[in-house]
């Protein structure tokens, strides 16, 4: 942003920022805006699911109940994301229920060459963390409930967005009916299949990978010791991310396995013993015998990118802006860095009395964050293709590359910093 630009007069509105979508991205952005504006920004979060109110006044008030179920869905947080979340006051609660990623083992089935990256290599406490989505979301929302200046409409929905000459008119619907609110800026964060993005006529570019992601939680005999595994097989990449133990004390990991439509259909429906046998054959015995698989789910793999991220008074964020291949676990981490960059721009603009929906301001945010987005999206997009290639020269170079990381510490360090998002300046200046 050009802070020296002449400040535009700001007309009065109901809110400074309205966030359509109170999921992990929307809640994170609201927390960042509240914290770094010293709660001076007026923010409305509209979420389709009910949000429980904080009860009581103790230090633990509003803290979510936690019971680690076997089948809970999870998210991988990079170390860079921890750096972002720590100043917001949520990390002490989150840290109680994360599984640390102390090392990452990358290998290619049927080929020589592998590498292992360790937190000790970069002198971080961990390379990343894996946390159940429900717990992460509830902690973020519980912290938001303590922020003055942040209102909620939940359950509710944004049904229409109409940009004005300066500001945005937003129609919101709830159980009590529909009403119009005004804001300087509206954030569209309603997911990869965003109805609001479609309503606004914002096109998307879609790259189909012609595979499905099969996801499930699995248990096994040997302790994962905080190791995340990235295994590239003939069928597609396979990730096993360490989880906390289940409520029955079972060792768990989150499985994300990229497969053809036909293979996915078969493995979704086959008996548990057959599934575990297929998994064992492809992954190997680094975790000992696989003993259990929970609920199995799938979704089509595709890269979805919004062709516009900003308009006057509007910003598209999270999966609505870019939905990535899950192979590198970068989706939420990239979105969180987007939130940081936008928070920097908006809080600086607010201090200078500048209109938050100014298109030049918003375009400046995109320009500053574009390199991070392009590098991260390209990495997530090209990695599966690289390891899926069956061409002999590519296979040899791939194996040599994996081996080289173990004998070239500088290259390994750069790779780890990239994966963690640390080279892009993840933390906000306080």
Q: Overview of this structure, please?
A:
This protein is an alpha+beta fold and 430 residues long. The chain has a domain at 15-54 and 72-205 and 302-424: FAD/NAD(P)-binding domain, CATH 3.50.50. The chain is 34% helix and 29% strand. The chain is built from twelve helices and 20 strands. The chain has helices at 24-36, 79-85, 91-95, 119-122, 133-144, 195-199, 261-269, 272-283, 331-351, 359-388, 392-407, 409-420, and strands spanning 15-20, 43-46, 74-78, 99-101, 103-108, 114-118, 128-132, 150-153, 156-164, 167-174, 177-188, 204-220, 227-232, 237-243, 252-259, 290-293, 297-306, 310-311, 314-316, 322-323. Strands 5, 6, 12, 13, 14, 15, 16, 17 and 20 form a nine-stranded mixed beta sheet that branches. A hairpin with a 4-residue loop joins strand 13 and strand 14. Helix 9 packs antiparallel against helix 10. It is globular, with a radius of gyration of 22 Å. The chain starts with 14 loop residues before the first strand and ends in a 10-residue tail after the last helix. Mean pLDDT is 83; it is low at 1-11, 54-62, 391-409 and 424-430.
Secondary structure layout:
Blueprint: E1 15-20, H1 24-36, E2 43-46, E3 74-78, H2 79-85, H3 91-95, E4 99-101, E5 103-108, E6 114-118, H4 119-122, E7 128-132, H5 133-144, E8 150-153, E9 156-164, E10 167-174, E11 177-188, H6 195-199, E12 204-220, E13 227-232, E14 237-243, E15 252-259, H7 261-269, H8 272-283, E16 290-293, E17 297-306, E18 310-311, E19 314-316, E20 322-323, H9 331-351, H10 359-388, H11 392-407, H12 409-420
Helix pairs in contact: 1-5, 1-9, 9-10, 11-12
